[in-house]
Structures are given as C-alpha cells and as structure tokens.
Amino acid sequence: MDRFLIETNIKWVFIYMFNIKKMFKVILLFSIIVTLFSFCVNANERLKIAFIPKSLDNPIFLDTFEAAQKTADRLDVILEWVAPFETSTKGQVKIINNLIKQNVDGIIISANNSESLKTVINEAFDKGIPVVTFDSDSYNSERLTYVGTDNYLVGSEMGNSLLNILKEQGKIKNQQEIMILSGVKGASNLKNRIEGFINSINENIKVKEVDIVYCDDNIQLAIELVEEYLKNNMSTDIVFFAGGWPFYAPADAMPNFKKWADQGGIAVGIDIFYSALILQKEGLIDYLIGQDFKNMGIKSLEIIVDFIKDKKEPKEFIDTGYTISNKDNIDHLLKIYKPWEVR
Amino acid sequence: MLPNLLEKLQFNTLRTKIIFAFIIVGLIPFLIFATFSYHTYSEAFYSKITTYSEEVVNSVVIQTDNYLLDIIELFEMKDDYYINQGIKLIQANEYQKNRKYIFRLWEEFNKIIRLKQGLNEFSIRFNNGQILSNFGLYYSAERDNSYYQDINFNNQGYFISTPHYNKYEEAVISIVKPFNTEKIKRVFLSIHFNIEILKRLTNLRLGQQGYIFIINKNGKVIYHPEEENIGQKAKLLNEYILKNNEGSTVIESNQKEYVLTFSSSELTDWKIISVADTTQFIAQLNELKKLTIIGIISILIALTIMIFYLSFYLTRPLKRLERVTEKAVHNNFNVDIQIKGKDEIAKLGKSINKMMSRIRNLVKTNIKEQKHIRELEVKSLYEQIKPHFIYNTLDMIIGQLEENNNIERASYLIESLGKFFRLSFAKGKEMVLIKKELDHIRSYLDIQKFRFMDKFDYLISIEDPEIKSYFIPKLLLQPLIENSIYHGVLNRDDDGLIIIKGYKRKDYIIFKIINNGPGINQNKREEISNILKDDIKKYNSEKNYGIYNVNKRIKYKFGEKYGLYLEESTNNKTVFRIEIGIIEVNEEND
Q1: Regarding predicted confidence, which is higher, A291 or B17?
Q2: Were A109 and a residue from A10, A52, B12, B567 both cysteine, which residue would form a disulfide, CB within 3.0 to 4.6 Å?
Q3: CATH number, span A151-291+325-336
Q4: Interchain contact B169–A (C-beta under 8 A)
Q5: Subunit contact B138:A80, Cβ cutoff 8 A
Q6: ipTM value for the complex
C-alpha cells in the first residue's frame, strides 16, 4: 500500500516536472500564501509596551498603572510596568537599556531628569523603538510626544490662586517669604511648575525671599524637610508644594507644619489624592491642583499603539488637563477620591 | 684518556692532584645538597601552593554556602498574607482594582532585598512568564525563560540558575523555589543576587596571576574574573575536575601550565576552582636555580682559592724536600732541612736529615777506607819493590854479564824484571786481570828462582781457566809467594816447591799457595791467625805486614766473608788459601 502511494507521488512529480508552466504557477501561489501567512502572524503578535514611572514607591502613579493595565487589556497589548523602586535617573537609564536589548515595541516614561535621559531615549529611537513621555517630559530628546499636564500652566494657575487667597486674607501687600518643595532637580515638570508659579506671583506681590528645597521624590525625606524648614523658619508666609510628596502623611505626623498652618501660613500644592484632600480639609493646605494620572496612562498607551500600528503621528504635547481643589469643592472631591490604603 | 690528558696538561703534580681532589670532594656534596634542596624546595613550594589553594577554595565554598543559605531562608514566607493575596489577584487578573496589594508587595520585596548585600530582586514568577518584583510587574524576557524551563529542583527543593541579566542589565544568579500552594504550583519565588558578590567572595590573593572561578556540575562557568567567560563552558577544565569533588590537577593551555585546586559545594553543586599560573612559580624556581648556580660558582671560586692556598701551604715542605733531595742527587749531601712542626712531612724531613747524615758518614767512611786501601796498596808496592830486591836483581844481572857473560840469562832476567815492574806500576789501577797477576807472579818467581840458583821450583795450576779473565786486586798474591820462598822453600835442604792453585767454587775464586818448606811452628801459627783476625798491634807489624796487608785488602774489596787463611802447616807443607769474590768487569775501566 505504502509502496503504491510513493510510486503514485513520484508519478505526479514527474508529470509536473515536465509541465514547466504549471510548476511556475504552483511556486508563485505558494509564495503568495507564505507571505500572507507571515503578515497574519505579525498582525497577531501582541505589542509589548513598557511603562516606566519615576519610581515604584510613589503611589501617585498607581492611577496611571491601573488605567494603563485596563487600556492594555483593551488594546490587547502586553504591558510591562518597570521602574526603580526609589526615584533614580540612573536606574531609569539602565531599565531603558534593558528594554532596548529586549526589543520592546514601545516605551512610555516619566523622566526623572530631562537631560540625563535624553541620550538613552535617542538610542531607543535609533533602534526603532518609539518613546512617549508622560508626567515629566524630556523635551530635547527624540521622544514621540509628551502626554501630561501643562506644568507651566498649572504653575501659573497655582500662582493666581495664591494671589486670590492672599487678597482674601488681606496679605497681598505684605512682603512674602516663600518656601518651595520640589522633587528631583532637573525634572522638567517640576521646573515648569515652579517657573509658572514664580512668574505669576512676581508681577503681583513683593517676594522677600524664595527658598527651593529638593526631596528627590522621597516621601519621608519630603516630610522631614518640611518639618525642619518650618521649625526653623516659622515666619515663612507661603509654602508651595510642586508635588504632593508630604501629603501622604497625616497631620499628626507633621506638627510643625500644622502649627505653622494654624498660625496663618498659606500652603498650596500640586497633586490631589485622598490623603491630600484630608489635609486640605483639616486646614493645613489652602489650595490644590490635581493632575490626571489616569488619563496619562490611557492616552500615552493609546498614542504609542496608534503610532506603532498605524503610524499615526501624535501632536507634540497631549494635555491631560487638571483638577482644582478649594474650599468650595473639597467635600465633593472627598466623595470621589478613595484612599489608596498603601500606607 | 683523562689521565693522558692530565699528563699532557702537566696536571700530574701533587699540588694539582690535591686541588682537584679537594674541589671534587668539596663540590660534590655541595652539588648533591643543592640539587636535593632545589627539589625539596620545589616540592614544598608546589605543596604550599596546593595547600594554600585548598584552604582558599574551601573557605570560598563555606562563605558562598553561608551566603546562599541566608538567601534561602528569605524564602520562608509562605504564610505572608500579601503574597498569597497578590498571587491570587494576579492569576485572576483582578489586580487593577486591588492595586494596594501590588504596591505593598513592591515595598515588601524591596525590604527583603535590603536585608542582604548583593540581592537586587525578589520576585514572584507565574507560569505565563509574568513577574511581580521590586522592579515592577513585567514579563520575563525570552532570554531569561530558559532558566525556568525544565527546572530540576534539588533535594532541598530549590534551583540555582546560571548567570543571566536583570532589569538593570546586571549579571545575576537566581535562586528559585516553587511557592508552596498545590493549586498554583507553577508559581515560583525567586531571588536574584548580583554576581559581584561572587567576585567579592572569590577575591582572595592567589599570587600575582592567580584567580578563582566557579563552575556548575556541567562545567558551565558561573563566575569568572573575565566576564566574557561567564555562562560559557569553562576553558580550563578536565575530566578529573568534573568527576571528583575535590583535589588538585595540572592543566596546560596556550603553552602555559596551571595548577587547579578545586572543592565542591553540596548545597549548590558548584565547584570552586582556584587557578595558579605556574609561570610565576617557575619564575621563582628559576630565580632559586639562578641563586643556586651563583652560590655554586661563588663557593667553587672560594673553594679553589682556599684549595690553592692550602695545597701551596701543604706542599711547600714537600717542595723544600724535593729541592734538598735534588741537591743530594747531585752529590751534595751537605744539606740540612729546617724542620718546623710535628706532622708526617716534618718526620719525613727528620728522616731525610738522618739519611743525609748517614750518607755523609758513609761517604766519609768510604773515603777513609779508600784512602786506607791506597795506603795499603802503596805499602804493598813498597813491600814488593824493596830496594834490596831490586839491587840484588840488578847485581845478579850484572854478575851474569860480568862473571859468566851469560847474556841470554841476563836478558831473561831483565825481561822478567820488566814484566814485574810493568804490573807493579800498571797504570795505577787497583784491579788487574788474574791472568796478568799470574804473569807477574811468574816473573817474580823466575827472578827469585834464578837468584836463589834454582833452589826451588814452582808450579802454577789453574783448574778453571775462565778465572783468568776475572779481576783480582793488584799484587795480592806476591807477598804470599815471597813468604813461601823466604820462610818456606829456602829453609829446606833439598829442592823446594811452590805450587799456586787457582779454581772457582760457586761465587768464590780460590787460590792456594802451597810450599813444601819446614812449616810454621805453633807460636807462629797463632801469631798469623791473630794477625789475620786483624789483631796486628800485639805483634811486629813490619815482620808480618805482608799477610796482614793481603788479608785487609781482600776484606776491604770483597767483604768480611772473604780473606786470607792459613789452611795447613806441617813439617813439609804449608798452605795459604785466598778467597776472593768474582769480578767479571773492572769498574775502573768503565
């Protein structure tokens, strides 16, 4: 039986061998099938996109994490959430190098330092890996777009809101001593916020002194710095928190800050989350502007997937908007925001 | 061949022999000692290397095991609520709503890796490749997956990977343990530690070029100071290392020789291998060899100088003795050796001094004896050629011519007298052929026979004619012939007879002078016997000087066993016997 089949096959082969035209058609058809099949395989291969927040220990990125995971499921892409546990520019550089070697399809990063990350972002770009920045931009790099808050605008808005508070409290004409708490030196988002803030208040109030203190995005350090600074400089009039690092701690954990606030110190800050709203409710903070981290997660992933799949060029800046929290809407916001329960 | 060469090179002097002997005797033990020391040192050095290396690798095994045991203890968190919850939520894909668990696990894992130096990742790994660690939530890279496929957990229930790279692009090794929940058995807990820890643990001194590397049971490099070797099959490896748990072996690679000492860890199945490059070891041995050679040469030079001095010092007295004996060879016996010390050479010097002294005495004695012989000869001659004998003979010749006009007889006498004088003054020689002596005796007897008018006759009988060609002291027989005439045959009334017999017995030549005179009385015989015993002073020396002289000359010439003897003396027969030695060649003619 087997022998018969073999002989039959050989017979057919010989028939086709002698029919050159038919043979050519068979080869052509086979080639087309193979090409189409490979396209289908590529089309079905899931994209692998890496998200790199500034650090894992900052819960502010949990909204982005959650939204990005959901979006990844929706877009059917593999999402990798990787970052140094604590804020580290070197760590981010190493991780990007690793991702380049893994040949991921795209990278979304919140740049700890705009300049330091420029080189490695450009390397990824050179290897054909698109990079999108979120939250904190690396504007001189070859990144595809920046998805996040208009930080200068937010800074200006914060300045204007402060002016309103000063007017309300009748302190507008006083000379103001200002302390600014920032995160990592070189982070473009923080730099822009501070710039916008200072520019907006400089025209309208007399600024006696401005001290900028950096906490390296470390929550515990941020709390200690604020406490220490206010203990030694109780005469400070205004504290501007360029990020919400100390807002994770309850009021009891910051007695000097509470004392200073009780004595009439005005505190304004960026980032809204549940514990920050509680501090505002307790009167320690006067005004908050919150970023939309959830939207950052959704938008940046959508944009990079669109770019990879459809070569859809995004705008250079995708504004994710912001939220304000003042005495008028705080109760409403407290109903919307839920505690993270991470501390 | 070597002795010939030495002879040619004139190395056969005592001094050279002493030098060579001392050098060989001094150098051979040193060479043996140096060779033995060199081998002992090289063996000790090799042993030291391996012993030290064994200590080092055992120490590294212990430290590495301790480090890994500490890590393994960190896995004991099966009851951790957040881990259990986190695993459940991730597997159900519900973690988005429960992000607090994820966040807390990140914090938890970060705390764990801070517990021990060198740890950089603690992770939960799911069977779909998803990883939750202190680096985030991600999927394992394809290049990492190989470490988790077909994992064979060891008896303790964990697996140790080969080196790979983590999210920070750092070379790490993973220790993996399955999480202890049956339903989710494909979930692993994993701890990565930085390979730099192995560098620190193995960073022990092993000479200038020595190092330590680690392989797994398959011979794959876990750690190596040269990073490119990590993960590869070890280059310096042999079956001995793979099949044994510990030991030492030598491997050649790239024309270099390496001593590899290894020990195994039961915990990890790793082999810790120390590598000692023997180049350094050989260089040290070469240095030692160089020092040994320099030492040998230095000692050889010092030894040679010392031996030269010693040989000179030791042979100097011998040289002096040689010079002295050389003088003695040239008949200068008036030398005296200055003796210092009490050693054998000093004793030899003393002996030579004594010998010289004796030679001098002997020479003196000899000279004295010779002088005496000459005196005896002169006296003998004087005795033979007494003036009245000559006058009488000449008168007799004149009488023959004047009275008898017997010219023929006178001519015969003159011829006999001529012969007599010819031998008497024979060139002043002491020794003459016996034949000549007999001719002389014959002339003398002829003259006396004529003088005493044939009152006696004589007979010369030589039984062994060969003795005629031997030598005899000149004029030895004549005094006895004369005695036979004057004290023998002339005292007879009838015809007297003198017989001279000559023959040879063994090493003697014997002459007997026999006369048939009236004999010698008892007193006279005793007197002659005493004179012949050298006791002449008691007697009239002039009267008996003839026989004394003959006997003395024989003894001086031939020795005490020879001499003149009165053999027999009766009324009509007196026999004197002369015994002399055989002299075939006259030394005076040489």
Answers
A1: A291
A2: A52
A3: 3.40.50.2300
A4: yes
A5: yes
A6: 0.82
Structure tokens at B494: 């009838």
**Smallest Cβ distance to B139: which of A78, A84, A340?**
A78
Q: Taking CB atoms and an 8 Å limit, are B138 and A81 in contact across chains?
A: yes
CATH class held by domain A48-148+295-312: alpha beta
The answer to whether A81 contacts B99, with C-beta atoms less than 8 Å apart, is no
Distance of CA B456 to the CA centre of its chain: 83
Single-letter residue type at B4: N
Q: Kindly report the CA angle at B516 between B511 and B517, in degrees rounded to 5?
A: 115
Task: Say if the Cβ atoms of A98 and B167 lie within 8 Å.
Answer: yes
CA of A13 vs chain B CAs: smallest distance (Å): 42
| Chain A CB contacts of B167 below 8 Å | 82, 94-95, 98
pLDDT tens, residue by residue, B206-259: 777 789 999 998 899 999 998 889 888 888 888 899 899 999 888 888 888 888
- The domain at B385-589 falls in which architecture? 2-Layer Sandwich (3.30)
Angle of helix A188-202 relative to helix A151-169, nearest 10 degrees?
Answer: 40
Distances in whole angstroms, Cα of residue B428 to Cα of each of B377, B378, B472: 10, 10, 14
Give the count of beta carbons closer than 10 Å to the beta carbon of residue B157. 11
**Long-range contacts formed by B244-249: CB under 8 A, 24+ apart:** B246/B54, B246/B57, B248/B50, B248/B53, B248/B54
**B550, B553, B555, B557: CA torsion to nearest 10:** -140
Instruction: Answer for the pair A197, A159: CB distance below 8 angstroms, yes or no.
Output: yes
Q: What is the CATH number of domain B51-280?
A: 3.30.450.20
Q: For residue B102, which residues of chain A lie inside 8 Å, CB to CB?
A: 65
Q: Give the DSSP letter string of B365-386.
A: HHHHHHHHHHHHHHHHHHHHT-
Domain locations along chain A: 2-44, 48-148+295-312, 151-291+325-336
Residue A332, class by beta-carbon neighbours within 10 Å (0-12 exposed, 13-18 middle, 19+ buried)? exposed
For residues A187 and A114, the answer to whether their CB atoms sit within 8 Å is yes
Which residue(s) pair with B260 in the sheet? B249, B275
The pLDDT of A12-24, averaged and rounded, is 54
pLDDT digit string (tens) for B105-120?
Answer: 999 899 999 989 999 9
Q: Do B103 and A83 touch (CB under 8 A)?
A: no
User: Which of B413, B388, B415, B418 is closest to B398 using CA atoms?
Assistant: B413
Å between A338 CA and nearest CA of chain B: 12
Contact residues for B306 (Cβ-Cβ < 8 A; gap 6+): none
A277: how many CB neighbours lie within 10 A of its CB? 23
